[in-house]
Amino acid sequence: NYKQEYFIKFPNDVVVTVCDGSGTYGEPVFFGEDCELLGVSNQDVVYTVVPDACFKIERNWMIINWCTYNPNLDCIEVPNPNPNAIGNHPSNLPGPVVSACGTLAPWAPTISKITPSDPTATNYCTYYQSDANCYRYKQIIKVVDQQAPTGEYVVPDCDNQAWFTENDHGLWNESYWWDAGIQSNDLCEEPVDLCITATDACSGSNINIEYLLFLDLDGDGTMETVVNSVNTGLAGLGWNKVRYNNLGTPNFSGGTVREFDQRSVDLNQKYGFAIQETVVGNLKTACVRWNTQQQQNNFVTPELPHGTHKIKWFITDGCGNNKEYEYSFTVKDCEAPTVVCLNGLS
Q1: Residue 176 CB coordination number (10 Å)
Q2: Are 6 and 35 in contact (CB under 8 A)?
Q3: The domain containing residue 163 runs over which residues?
Q4: Which pLDDT does position 109 carry in this prediction?
Q5: Residues 28 and 120 in one domain
Q6: Nearest to 265 by CA among 244, 248, 240, 284
């Protein structure tokens, strides 16, 4: 008669100070497997408010022998041993061995208090059954991270941007805008793709990204206007507005409010500065974008006036570690002039 007689060593609890980005912190180890078809799976529950770590992961393991598993029957719940009242004490970290009573080392069953207040220790052979339907166990992973996240970006220039578009007279065209080079109130602009892709070894894509965009809107070589991503749209300034000359004001909240979208559309279809974020695996990409009040989840590449500007990205992980990236870029017409020959001229 078939009997499943495998033993299990569940993974240790872990206090992580340096992550490698894999998210792997051990897994169950087996002894005595024969013809069993063992299935191992886990699901994570993340807690961001904990007293002794930046965040805590409860990794819920499930062990199934597909040869005998019945989804209508219960699993054996194996408790996580915590014999010491000090949360991160070394004696609380080892994962238990579940094996038959009387098994010799190194596969002897764990004997430990489940909680510090238990009057006696528990022999984990009590959780072993040769006909077990399945096992469940909760591994605790505490992350105390001091590593800053990392990011990658491309500085916009003529080689990677489409800076040969015709001037849009519906943008940056008001009496208070002035381009001294062309002596016009209609500023020349180009679509500028400003993005950064970031990750964190511990938090993965669970990071926060913000930006400050420094603009030179009067063409004098000084960036006097700042767009703060946390104060755009419904969170602050609304749409079709920048705070001109707000650089030296507290939290960039001063300056003069000016409009930049003169298109003949309804007010709720006017453009405003925003941030667009997308996640692929452990990577989060954030981009400076325009959207409208009517369609806040539809984004377009912003059109920025010619001149030298700067962006500063702020990336923060789940433990409060911050990384900043700052770079300048010059928006200009990249299309070469066209030579035209006129007949009849000598």
Answers
A1: 11
A2: no
A3: 150-331
A4: 98
A5: yes
A6: 240
Give the predicted TM-score (pTM) of the model.
0.79
Average pLDDT for residues 54-78, to the nearest whole number? Answer: 94
243 has pLDDT over 60: yes
The distance from CA 143 to its chain's CA centroid, rounded to whole angstroms, is 16
Q: Report pLDDT digits (tens) over 199-222.
A: 999 889 999 999 999 999 999 999
Residues 110 and 229 in one domain: no
Give Rg (Cα) of the chain. Answer: 30
Whether the predicted pLDDT of 336 surpasses 80? no
Residue 301 and residue 289 in contact, taking contact as beta carbons nearer than 8 Å: yes
Q: 328 phi and psi, to 5 degrees?
A: -100, 160
Same domain, 220 and 123: no
Final residue of a structural domain among 98, 124, 143:
143
List CB contacts of 340: < 8 A, sequence separation 6 or more.
Answer: none
Helix/strand/coil percentages in the chain, nearest 5:
5, 40, 55
Mean pLDDT of the chain: 93
135-160 burial, b at 16+ Cβ within 10 Å, e below that, comes to: bebbbbbbbebebbbebebeebeeee
pLDDT at 346 over 70: no
Residue 290: Cβ within 10 Å count: 23
